[in-house]
Design goal:
By secondary structure, the protein is α/β, with parallel strands linked by helices. The chain is about 20% helix and about 15% strand. Helix 5 crosses helix 6. The radius of gyration is 30 Å and the shape is elongated. The structure holds zinc ion (2 copies). The site of one zinc ion (ZN) has 7 residues, from loops.
Length: about 450
């Protein structure tokens, strides 16, 4: 057996920090290692933290070892990028054989932040399949990597960006299907639309602190992504940000986030749980649609709107507690949630068309309780739950009053009862209770006294 060591693959990720060169096998950065990285004796280019890692990587590295070329560009960088000279050279080399280091302390941008999609092929490294690893650490003033800059570099496995970088443009790394590791510098504040779309080898994402906006479809179709860490500075998650990330199992979103875009986690078929922050007010259209493994979601008390089809076809979802703050549930919001059994629907929430369409389990439950509409059934249930809560709260107050009163048992009860005015001018709770009693066919004051006496 060639390799008995357990590979440490924790480095296969999109991380935040200041890591520079790292082991080609386990991805650990040189600064985290006790010794310097060792180079492969044959090519002198591949680097490993120890023999185990070298042996582990050999299967992959063997085919390329002798073909590897290191290209270092540190003069005339601007022109060589603009004229396409560097790209032309890269296009002549074999797939996955180039280690590119750009070391120009003066350039501020690679590519163009305004390049239109129909001119994507003009981007400096568009479809340069020869790229294996890219180091931009030496570009100490670089602030942006433009639109499509490294798009479809399908052999690119690792990318090191400088600490000065603030912006990554549209689809800058889109379709980099071999990309396992990117270090996002802490200086980064913006990630453009589709920035890492279709990076099917990325396993984890750590966005740097201070990060505020994640562009639309930023990680769409990153099908190996199993975990992500979002900073608490993030206020918006763009439409489709994690659409079809089919390996993602759980999501914890932090406070500060107010909006979850359309389809943000749509089709995340492995997602089992989601915790949403208290700052969230809107859940976009289809935010969790087709998350067929989702069993539990905690909706925050700040939520006011649930978009159309927000949880449609979440076929494993069994219960849902809608917060009192929620005023609107969009069309088909829970359509096709065939396992949904229990829903708490506040009085103040209005339902869009077909909000519970094809919720078979719920329809059945409603029918058993004698209702031919899920909505009527849920409204009735909510009323009785609220009523029960109110009675219990009143009861606690009443018992307290009895305990504080003096005299015989009968005198104590009389004192306590006097504290609960029979008209609606008393405490708000009593008024509310009377209202509920009237709506539900109870008989007001008599009912209230009756209720309390039943419990004492
Ligand atoms: Zn290693
Ligand atoms: Zn080698």
């Amino acid at each position: 057996m060639r390799n008995t060591a357990t590979p440490n693959i924790s480095g296969l990720s999109l991380t935040s920090g200041t890591q520079s060169r790292c082991c080609w096998y386990c991805g650990r950065g040189e600064e985290t290692l006790p010794t310097k990285l060792q180079k492969c004796g044959r090519c002198g280019l591949a680097e490993y933290c120890n023999r185990e890692c070298q042996r582990g990587d050999w299967k992959l590295h063997k085919a390329k070892c002798k073909m590897l070329t290191e290209i270092i560009v540190d003069t005339d960088v601007k022109n060589r990028l603009r004229s396409g000279a560097l790209k032309r050279r890269l296009l002549t080399l074999s797939e996955g054989t180039v280690i590119l280091s750009i070391r120009d302390p003066d350039i501020t941008t690679i590519g163009d932040m305004n390049l239109a999609v129909e001119r994507a092929y003009e981007a400096p490294f568009f479809k340069c399949k020869s790229l294996l690893r890219v180091y931009l650490k030496g570009c100490t003033k670089l602030t942006s990597v433009g639109n499509f800059a490294f798009a479809s570099c399908s052999s690119l496995t690792s990318m090191v960006l400088p600490d000065s970088l603030t912006q990554i443009g549209e689809a800058a790394f889109g379709g980099c299907t071999s990309l396992t590791s990117v270090v996002l510098p802490d200086s980064l504040t913006e990630l453009g639309e589709s920035a890492f779309q279709d990076c099917t080898s990325l396993t984890s994402v750590v966005l740097p602190d201070s990060f505020t906006e994640l562009g639309e479809y930023a990680f769409q179709d990153c099908t190996s992504l199993t975990s992500m860490v979002l900073p608490d500075s993030l206020t918006q998650l763009g439409d489709g940000a994690f659409l079809r990330c089919s390996s993602l199992t759980s999501v914890v979103l932090l406070d500060s986030l107010t909006l979850l875009g359309k389809g943000a986690f749509g089709d995340c078929t492995s997602l089992t749980s989601a915790v949403l922050p208290d700052s969230l007010t809107q859940l976009g259209e289809g935010a969790f649609t087709f998350c067929s493994s989702l069993t539990s979601v905690v909706l925050p008390d700040s939520l006011t709107q649930l978009g159309e089809q927000a949880f449609a076809k979440c076929t494993s979802l069994t219960s849902m507690l809608l917060p009192d703050s929620l005023t609107q549930v969009g069309r088909l919001a829970f359509g096709g949630c065939s396992s949904l059994m229990s829903v708490i629907l506040p009085d103040s929430t209005t339902l869009g068309d077909g909000a519970f369409y094809e919720c078979d389990a719920l329809v059945q439950k409603a029918a058993l309780a004698g209702f031919d509409s899920v909505e009527l059934y849920l409204r009735y249930r909510y009323k009785s739950i609220t009523l029960r809560k109110l009675v219990l709260r009143l009861l606690r107050k009443y018992k307290k009053a009895v305990n504080y009163a003096y005299g015989t048992e009968a005198e104590k009860h009389a004192t306590a009862l006097a504290l609960f005015p029979a008209d609606n001018t008393g405490s708000l709770e009593v008024g509310l209770f009377l209202q509920k009693m009237n709506i539900s066919g109870g008989d007001g004051v008599i009912g209230l006294v009756g209720y309390i006496l039943k419990f004492v």
